[in-house]
Amino acid sequence: MRSQKYVYSFNEGDGSNHYLFGGKGAGLCEMTKIGLPVPPGFVITTEACRNFFEEGQTLSEPLRRQVLEGMRALETATGRRFGQRHHPLLVSVRSGAAVSMPGMMDTILNLGLTQQTLEGLVEETQNERFVWDAYRRFLQLYGKIALNIPADALDHLLEEAKREVNVTQDVELDVSALKKLCDRLIKTIEAHTQTPFHENSWDQLFLAIAAVFNSWMGKRAVDYRKQFNITPDMANGTAVNIVAMVFGNMGVSSATGVAFTRDPATGEDRLFGEYLINAQGEDVVAGIRTPKPIDNLADEMPETYRELQGVRQTLERHYREVQDFEFTIERGKLYVLQTRNGKLNARATVKTSVDMHREGLITKKEALLRVTPEHITQLMHPHIDPKQKPSPLTQGIPAAPGAASGKIVLDPDRAEDLKKRGKDPLILLREETKPEDIHGFFASEGILTLRGGKTSHAAVVARGMGKPCVVGCEDLTINLDTSEIFIGSQKLREGDWLTIDGSSGEVYTGRVPTIEPQMDEDLNTLLRWADETRTLGVRANVDTPEAARKALTLGAEGIGLCRTERMFNAPDRLSIVQEMILADTEEKRRDAIQRLLPFQRSDFKEILKAMEGKPVTVRLLDPPLHEFLPDPESLILEVENLKDFSGTLRALEELPGIIRMLDPSLHEYLPPIERVLKDLGKIKKRREDEAYLQKKEELLKKVKALSEVNPMLGHRGIRLGITYPEIYEMQIQALLEAAAELLKEGIDVRPEIMVPQVCTAQELKWVHRMVEKIHKDVEARFGISVPLHFGTMVEVVRACMRAGRLAEVADFFSFGTNDLTQATFSFSREDAENKFLPLYNERKILQDNPFEVLDQKGVGRLMMITIEWGRRTKPDLTIGICGEHGGHPASIEFCHNIGLTYVSCSVNRLPVARLAAARAKIREVRGKLPEGLDSEYPFVIYF
Amino acid sequence: MRSQKYVYSFNEGDGSNHYLFGGKGAGLCEMTKIGLPVPPGFVITTEACRNFFEEGQTLSEPLRRQVLEGMRALETATGRRFGQRHHPLLVSVRSGAAVSMPGMMDTILNLGLTQQTLEGLVEETQNERFVWDAYRRFLQLYGKIALNIPADALDHLLEEAKREVNVTQDVELDVSALKKLCDRLIKTIEAHTQTPFHENSWDQLFLAIAAVFNSWMGKRAVDYRKQFNITPDMANGTAVNIVAMVFGNMGVSSATGVAFTRDPATGEDRLFGEYLINAQGEDVVAGIRTPKPIDNLADEMPETYRELQGVRQTLERHYREVQDFEFTIERGKLYVLQTRNGKLNARATVKTSVDMHREGLITKKEALLRVTPEHITQLMHPHIDPKQKPSPLTQGIPAAPGAASGKIVLDPDRAEDLKKRGKDPLILLREETKPEDIHGFFASEGILTLRGGKTSHAAVVARGMGKPCVVGCEDLTINLDTSEIFIGSQKLREGDWLTIDGSSGEVYTGRVPTIEPQMDEDLNTLLRWADETRTLGVRANVDTPEAARKALTLGAEGIGLCRTERMFNAPDRLSIVQEMILADTEEKRRDAIQRLLPFQRSDFKEILKAMEGKPVTVRLLDPPLHEFLPDPESLILEVENLKDFSGTLRALEELPGIIRMLDPSLHEYLPPIERVLKDLGKIKKRREDEAYLQKKEELLKKVKALSEVNPMLGHRGIRLGITYPEIYEMQIQALLEAAAELLKEGIDVRPEIMVPQVCTAQELKWVHRMVEKIHKDVEARFGISVPLHFGTMVEVVRACMRAGRLAEVADFFSFGTNDLTQATFSFSREDAENKFLPLYNERKILQDNPFEVLDQKGVGRLMMITIEWGRRTKPDLTIGICGEHGGHPASIEFCHNIGLTYVSCSVNRLPVARLAAARAKIREVRGKLPEGLDSEYPFVIYF
C-alpha cells in the first residue's frame, strides 16, 4: 500500500495542475492562492481516484487518514465540528476532472447534516425552515448520488409534499411540511437500500467520495469521453473537492449570484451579472424569482459591491482573460465559489482582446490567438443584434453561418413555387433534406432541419451555397398533414415568420432584426496587428470595380483572381458573346470579339485604377463556351413543339370556319370555338415564322455540338484559348491597353495575366508568345513601358507534375484548389455534395468536405510537390492560392506552412484570412511537417 | 588548309562507318570487303562535304588531288582511261548521306562520255546505238543535276525526238534520232548556261561532285531533315560515290535486276526477284517491258544464277538480315550494285526472324527485337490477303490499323441513314472530318479522308473506336454535287465498293479479300521466346467466358480486369437492374439484387473455371447507375408529348362525329376524316393509359435525380458501393460462392476482388471489412478455404498520393490509366478526342494522344510515386495496369521499367503485349530513368 499524499488543502494545491487536481479543484486552489475569499476546503487528487480503482473500488487506509486530517484542518479553519451538534460543519462534495464533462456527475450539498446536527444548526441560525430545507436537499442529493436511488423516486416525494399543502413552489413549503418530507425521504431511502438509514456523517462522507470516484467509470462518463475523444493523457480519474458550506439563503444580508468580469455580449469593461437576495445558487438558475442586475448591489450592499469589484480586478489580473464566476454572500461575507473563462460572443471577444492588450494584460500575439477565425466569420455574416435579441424559441446545431428571416415553407416544390410568385423570403423547414430537395435550397434564404449534424446533406449543401443553416433541431416536430410545427405546447404554421442564426444554432419566432456585417474600430485594430504579424500575403478574388473598392477597405493587398467571364455575362455583352460563339466564319467571330474589346478594356481600367499600386491578376477566359448558350433541354422541347402535330394543325385550322358555317343547332356537338381558336393560336404562333424554327434548330445544333459529357474536364480554359486564339488575344490586348492608358495618366498599375487549366508547358509557352507579341505591340503604340507578370493557374494535376517546366516561363503559380480538388478526388463538386459527400462525412470516410477544407493529405501533397519542383527551377517563384480554400482558416495555416506567398479569397473572407495568416505565423513550428501529414513521405518542406 | 584523307577506295572504307561514308558508300565498301562482285570505285567522305561548305563551297586542293589519285586507281583496276578515246572509263556519281533521304538527290550516270570518248566506245562495243543512248542519258542527268537546268527543258527534247520519228518508246529511237537529240540537248544546255558546253571530263567530274555536295543544303534536303527531325549528330553532309559504270544493256548476255534474299511477302527462304535481259536499271522501274521472275534466270544463265545464289548466301551470312539488292550482268559478268535491309511485311518479318534464329544466324533476342509490336498489331487485325492483293488504287497515310471493305458514303447523315436501313457495310469518305461527323463514324466500317495526318480528327477518333482509317489520301478529289470521286482519270461513285487497309494506308477498289487475324506457328514460336525472356506478366481484360478462353489461347497468364457491369447489361438482367435502381425501399432493392445474384455467380463460375489455376481479378461495379437507365432527352420528349395539347385532343375527339353527322355536301370544307382519325389515334394511344404517363414521369424524375453534371467524376465505383452496400455485398458473395463451388469440384481457382474509384484508405478499409465478413461466412457455409486476394484500382489521383496507406490493406494495385489520364489532364476523353486533341497534336502541344500512349511525364510520374510509396509500405506489393495503355508497346516498356508486376490488356493485344514486354526486358538499362523523364526529379526508380 503506497503512502502518498492524496489530499491537499486549497492553500497547498498547485492551481496550474489540472491533471492532478481537476479543473474545479485547481481553480479553488488558485483562487485561494491569489487571496480571493474562497470557503476553506481541500482536494482529493485524481491519483486517489486511480488508486481507488486499482484497489478494487475501496478507499485506502492512507486516503481515509488524510481525509480525516483534511476535515480536522477544516474544523480548525471554520471553528466548527463535523458531525457535532454544536456549530456543526457542513460540506459540499463535488467531482471535478481535468477536462470539463458537463452533466457527468452532480454535487452533494450540506453533507454533515443529521437529525442530531440539524438541531444544533437551528439553535445557531434561529431559522428552522432554512435548516430543514437544507436537510431535505441533502437527503435528495445523497440518496440519488451516494446511494444510487432513482432520482424520480425521491423527487416525486417533493411534488407530493407540495400537492398535499396545495402549493406550487418549493419555497412555499413550511417547516412541518419539510419535516414530513424528510421523514418520507428517509423511509424511501431505507426501502431502496433495505437497511436503516446511516446517520453517521463520516460514513456518509466516505460513501460520497467513493460514489464520486465510481461515477468516473459510469456509463454516462465513459460514453462522454469516447464521444469527445478524451484520452487518459488528457484526464485520468476525477478529483473530489470537499468545501465548507456557505449559504446565500441565511436572510436579507445573504445573497447569491453569477458575474462576468466584462460584458459578454458587448465586451464593455464593467462588472456584469445578476444576483438574488436570500437565495441559493440553484434558485438563480431555477428562474422562480427574477434576479437583479449586479449594479443594484451597489445600493443594497455597497461594501460587498466594492469587494466584488476587487474580486473582478484580481481575477482578471491573474487569469488575463474574462472570467465567469459564482459568488455567495453569507450574512454579509462574500465568498467566491468558482471561476472559469467567460464565454463571449464574437464582438465581445474582439473588444476584450484588444482592450486587454491596451491595458497591458496580454501581448498582441495572445490577442491574435484569442480571437478565432470563426469569431471573424460570425462578424462577417449578418447576425442577430445582441441588443435586441429575444429569447430563442429553441436551439439546434449551427451548420452554416449567418442569420436569416423568412416565412416557413415545408416543401421544396412549394418553396420553388412561392419564390417564383412571391416577394417574401422563405425558410425551408424539413425533417431532413435529400438530393431531390435541392431546388428548395435555391428558393430559400435559410434552411432548418430537425435531424442531422454538421455533415448532413442540408449542412453540406447550405454551406456550399453560403446560406445560413441550422440542423438537428430535435425538439421541433412537424405535422405535414396540417402544415403545423410544434415545439412543446407552442404551435407554428407554414407561412409564419421565423429567424434562424446559423452561427449560434438559435431559432427565433418572427422577424428578428439582424445586423449587416461591418468592421468596427476594435476589429480593425486587431487586423492591423494581424497584418504586422503575418508573412503570408492576402489578396481578394474580385471581378468588378465595386468589389475591388470593398476589398481594399477590408485589407486586400491585391487581386489574386479576376474572372473575366463574369464580364462576358453582363446583359449588354451576352448577345455579342453568343454571336461570337455562333459565328460560322473566323471573320464573323473576330468581328464580334472586337466589339467585346472596349467593354473588357473599360472594366479592366476601372479595376486597375481602383487597385492602384497593387497587383491585379486577370485570369483569361475559363468556362466552356456552352455556358453562354441556352440550356439544351428547353430548346429541345421548343423545337419539338414547333415541329410536331402538323396534321392536327391543318385540321384545326379548318375547324372554326366549319363551326361558323354550321346551323347553330349543331353547335352543341362541337367544341366551343374559343377553345379551338386558343389551341390554334398557340400552335400557329409557334409555327408562323418558319425562320424562327430554323434559327432555333440551328441554335440547338450548335448547343448540342458544344455540349459535353463532362464539362468540368472539357473544352475550356487554355484549351479554348488555343482553339480560338482570337478570344485570348482580345483579352490580353484589352488588359494591356487599359494598363497603358492608366500609366499615361500617371497611375501606377500592376497587371498580371494568368492562364487557366494549363496542363503542359507547351500550352503555357504558346500563350506566353502571344502575350509577348501583344505586349510589345501595345508598348510601341502607347510609347510607354507596361509592367506585366505572367503566370499560370495550377488546377490540373498534370500541371503539378510539370511544375519544374512551367516555372521556366511563369512568374507566378496560383493554385486553383476548387478544380484541383475535383481532379484529385475525381469528385465533381455539384454531384458529390448533393449525392454522397454527406454520407462520406457521416461514416467518417472523409473527416471534412474537401471543397471547404483543403485536403492536406491528397491535394496538399500535390501542392507540396508543385512548390518544391517549381522553386527548384525558379527559387523566387511567387505562389498563391485562389480557390475557396484561400479563405478557410485551417487551410490558410497549411498554405503558410508549406511556403505559399499569398492566399486570395472572396472579399468577405479577407478579415478571416488576415487573422488566420497571423495566427499561422505565431504558431508555426519550423522544421516540422504540417499536422496530419504522415511523416514517412520524403519531401523537403520549405520551412 | 587541312591535308586529310577524304577519299577511300571501296577496299579501304570501313563498312560500318555510315556517318563518314554515308549509307550507300558504306554498303559498297562492306560488300567489297566480303568479296562480292562490286564494280570498283571510291567514296568521298561526308567530312569532305563539310569542308566544302567551310571553304565557301569550293573543292579544296587536297580533295581534288585525292580524287585524281582515286581515278587513277580506278583506271588501273578497270584497265580503262578516264577521258581517253581508247577504252574510256565511265563512272557514275552518286550521293549518299548517313541517313536515307529518298528523292533528295539524283545520280549522274555515264560521266566520262564526250564526243571524243564515245567514238572509242563505239569502236569497242560495236554498238553505236547503245553508246549514243548512254550519251543522251548523261547529257540529260548532267544538265539537270550539275548545271541546274530545269528537267522539263531537257526531257521535253526527248519527247519531241520521239514525236518526230513517230515512236512512243525511248528504245525505239535509232542512232540518227539519238544523235540529233544529243545535239539539241547540248544546244539547250548552252542556251541556259550562256557558255559553250564543257567537254572536259575532269571538269565535269568536279562539277558533279560539287553539285552533289551543294544538294545537301538545297531546300528539298533541308526541309526533309527538318520534317523527319534529322539532326547533325545523325547525318552531317553527304558522301559522294564514284563507281565504274557497268552495263546491263550490252546485249543478250547482259541483264539487270533486283532481288530479295527471301520472299518479302511470305518470308519463304528462297531467292525472290525479277530481271530484264539487255536492259538498264531504270528500265525495270519504268515498266516498259515486263521483267521475268528470277527463277527463269536458272535456265537463261545457269552459271550466273548460281553466282546469284552465292551472293544471296554471302549477303545473309554477313548482314544476318533479309537483303534487297540490285545487280547487273554485263556480258556474262555479275555485279552487285547496292544492298539494303529488305522491307518485309509483318508475316514475312516474323517468319524470317524465327527461321534465321533456327539457322543460327541471329539470337533469340535479336529475333525479338527485329519483329516490332506494330508487326504483331498488323497481324492481329484483319488484313489484305498478300496472295490475292491487287494493285492499290492509291495510298494514303495509315492512321488506324485493320482492313475494311464497304460501300462509299460521302455524308455522315446519309451514312447513319443507310446504316439503319441497309445491310451493306460502309466506308465513310470525306475531305476531312469534324466533331459533328461523329455519327458517321459509328455507322461506318472504316474511314478514308483526303486531308489530315496521323493526329487529325478522323485518325484520333477512328483509333479511339478501333476502326480502320486511312487519311491524307491527297490524290483523290470529291465532287459533292455529283457524288463522284476522282483519281486521275478513274471515277468512282458513292455506293461503289472500296477497301482500305489502315495498316499500310493502301486503298483498293472493290471488295478485296481480307484475312482474319490468326496465330501461325512462327508467331507462336516467337511469342514463346518472348515469354521465356520477359519478366513482366501479361494478363487480359475479359468479361465473358468465351473471351477468357480466347485469352488463354493468346497467352494470357490471368485476367487483370473482369468488368462486372457488362454482366448487368445483358438483356435478361437489365430489367432487374432497373428495378433495383428504381426501388423506393431498401427491401425492394435488396430483393432485386438477390435475383441478380445467381446470374453473377454463374458468370463468375464459368470464367473462374476457364482460367483454372490463374488469377481472375473481378472489379466491383463501377459505372454510375444512370448508365443503366434510358437517356433523358428522349424521355423528356415523350413525357412532354404525352402531356401536351389536351385541349386539341378534346376538340379532335369530337370532330369525327361531327363530320359523320354533317350533310355530305359540307364535307369538302372539312379535313378528311382519315387524317383526323390518324392524328387522333396517335395522340389517344399515347394518353389512353394514364398509368403509362405516370410511370414515364416517375422514371424521368429518377433519371433526372440520378443524372450528373460530370458523370466521369460522379456517383460511381466505391462511392456507389458505400451508398448502396447491398450491391457490392451481392457481387462479393456471388464471386466467393462461385469459387467455393468450384473448389468443391476440385478446380483450382484464384479469385481477386478489385475496388474501383478508390480515393481514400478509409473507403478501401470499408470494403475490406465487408469482404472479410462475407469471405468468412462463405467459407463456413461451404466448409472450405477459399483463397482470395484483395486490391484496389489506382485511377483516382488521390489514391496515388495515399498509396502508402492503401498498401496497408491492399494485396495489389492496378493502375486504371484511362481514368487516371482523364483526371491527370482534366481532359474528358470523349470531349477531348472530339474537340481539341487533334489540334493539340497538330500544333505539337502534345506529341501523342495520351489516351493511346501513356503520358510518362505526367501520369507516369504519378505511377512512379505510387509504386514507390506503395512498396515502401509493402515491398512485395503486386502492381499491374489494366487501362488501355496496358496493350500499347511504348507504354508497356515504361511499365516494365518502373517496376510493374504485370500489364493487362484487351484480348487481341495480348501477343503485342507479350512481345513488347520481352523487348522491354532486352533493352532495359538498369539505374537509368525511363526515356523522356527529366532527370532533375528526385525519385528512386526500381530498376
In quaternary terms, these chains amount to homodimer
Total DSSP E strands of chain A: 31
SS-derived structural category of chain A: alpha/beta
* Number of DSSP helical runs of chain A: 38
Provide the descriptors you would attach to this structure in a database record:
8-stranded parallel beta barrel; 943 residues; 8-stranded mixed sheet; alpha/beta; homodimer; 38 helices; disordered C terminus
Describe the structure.
Two copies of one chain form a homodimer. Chain A is of the alpha/beta class. In chain A, 48% of the residues lie in helices and 15% in strands. In chain A, helix 5 (128-146) packs parallel to helix 7 (175-193), helix 15 (373-380) runs antiparallel to helix 38 and helix 29 (725-744) packs across helix 30. Chain A is elongated. Chains A and B meet through helix 24, helix 25, helix 26, helix 28 and helix 30 of A and helix 24, helix 25, helix 26, helix 28 and helix 30 of B.
Write the layout of secondary structure elements.
The structure is a homodimer of 943-residue chains.
Chain A: E1 7-9, H1 18-33, E2 41-44, H2 46-54, H3 61-78, E3 91-97, E4 108-111, H4 115-125, H5 128-146, H6 151-164, H7 175-193, H8 201-215, H9 219-227, E5 238-244, E6 255-260, E7 272-277, H10 281-286, E8 292-293, H11 297-300, H12 302-319, E9 323-330, E10 333-341, H13 346-358, H14 364-370, H15 373-380, E11 383-384, E12 394-395, E13 397-400, E14 403-409, H16 412-421, E15 426-430, H17 438-443, E16 446-449, H18 457-465, E17 469-471, E18 476-479, E19 484-487, E20 490-493, E21 497-501, E22 506-509, E23 514-515, H19 521-533, E24 537-541, H20 545-553, E25 559-563, H21 565-568, H22 571-582, H23 586-610, E26 615-619, H24 632-643, H25 646-661, H26 673-687, H27 690-706, H28 718-723, H29 725-744, E27 750-755, H30 761-782, E28 789-794, H31 797-801, H32 803-809, E29 812-815, H33 817-825, H34 829-835, H35 837-842, H36 856-873, E30 878-881, H37 889-897, E31 902-906, H38 910-923
Parallel strand pairs in A: 14-15, 15-16, 16-17, 24-25, 24-31, 25-26, 26-27, 27-28, 28-29, 29-30, 30-31
Antiparallel strand pairs in A: 1-2, 2-5, 3-4, 3-5, 6-7, 6-9, 7-8, 9-10, 11-23, 12-22, 13-17, 14-21, 18-19, 19-20, 21-22
Helix pairs in contact in A: 4-5, 5-7, 6-7, 13-14, 13-15, 13-19, 14-19, 15-38, 19-38, 20-23, 22-23, 23-29, 24-27, 25-26, 29-30, 32-36, 37-38
